[in-house]
Amino acid sequence: MHDLVIRGGTIVDGTGAPKRTGDIAVEGGIITAVGGKLGPAKRVIDADGALVTPGFVDIHTHYDGQATWDPELAPSSLHGVTTAVFGNCGVGFAPVRPGAAPYLINLMEGVEDIPGTVLSEGVKFNWESFPQYLDALAAMPRVMDIGAQVPHAALRFYVMGDRGADHTELPSEDEIARMGLLLEEALKAGALGFTTSRTVKHKAKDGRPTPSLTARQAELNGLAAAMRRAGTGVLEVNSDFGPGEFEAMREAAEIAGAPSPA
User: Fold this and answer.
1) Which of 44, 117, 133, 185 suits 195 as a labelling partner, its CA being 20 to 30 A distant?
2) Per-residue confidence at 262, pLDDT binned at 50, 70, 90?
3) Across the beta sheet with 150-151, what order do the strands follow?
């Protein structure tokens, strides 16, 4: 007898095969059979008239704050998403120095239209480093899998202080090296990648452009070199792709040895 049978649903398995009506048997949390009339089970779900599909992986979300307090991550979990990835567009909440959270909230509110009052009240900021942020995420059971990426804005602001919020300010060689070490540490701790923003559409709530808007090649390449040292991670960029932009990101991606979805 199966632990669970999802009975009579319209199965779309994601392989490109035609949809079909059938049963899905589950034992010990693992799908063990797909077919017609799979027999009795301890629990039966009548899926007649419903689609039965693999869980969706949403690689571009902004649950950076919500994931620290909401085990359900609604509404994504209500629409079949079983894995959500955040830290996109170069914005997020780690690393963060004590007392520096308001700027990161201001940036997230402006870029992603998430109310700052919600973030201020909901996010505890009981971490400083990115590995500590991952630990805070891991401490909460939730209904779906999650993955976090290292946001350029938070990294820059952490290392450079208030100067880092100004995209026209250039980091010193030491500051680039420090950012690289922190990125390498985060990737080795489990971060999925590094993200940056180079679009004029992204502005903080107070109107300031995103800190990474005009990050120079030396800064990008220094971070890319850290990715190569870590030997893991993807490079994500949100860009207007003006003159030279594609070439700049391609150079960084080649140094990183990582894929770079735009």
Assistant:
1) 117
2) very low
3) 150-151, 193-198, 234-239
SS3 label, residue 260? coil
Structural domains counted in the chain? 2
End-to-end CA, the chain: 48
Whole-angstrom Cα distance, residue 229 to residue 25? Answer: 44
The domain of 9 spans 2-52
The residue written with tokens 């390449």 in the block is 221
Which residues, 6+ apart, have CB-to-CB distance to 254 below 8 Å? Answer: none
Q: Treating both helix axes as pointing N-terminal to C-terminal, what angle do 130-138 and 173-189 enclose, rounded to 10 degrees?
A: 20
- Give the residue carrying structure tokens 């250039």: 170
Which tokens is 107 given?
Answer: 């940036």
What SS3 state is found at 101? helix
DSSP E strands: which ranges in 123-199? 145-148, 150-151, 193-198
Q: What is the model's pLDDT at position 259?
A: 59
- Please name which of 141, 137, 145, 142 lies closest in space to residue 54, comparing C-alpha atoms: 145
- Give the chain's mean pLDDT: 95
User: Which residue(s) pair with 198 in the sheet?
Assistant: 239
Same domain, 141 and 80: yes
Distances (CA, A) of 192 to 54, 79, 137, 162, 225: 22, 23, 14, 27, 16
Do 86 and 203 belong together in one domain?
yes
- Tell whether omega for the bond before 95 is within 30 degrees of 0, i.e. cis: yes
Question: In the listed set 11, 28, 52, which residue is the last one of a domain according to the structure?
Answer: 52
Query: What pLDDT was estimated at residue 233?
Result: 95
- Under a CB-based contact definition with an 8 Å cutoff, are residues 156 and 211 in contact? yes
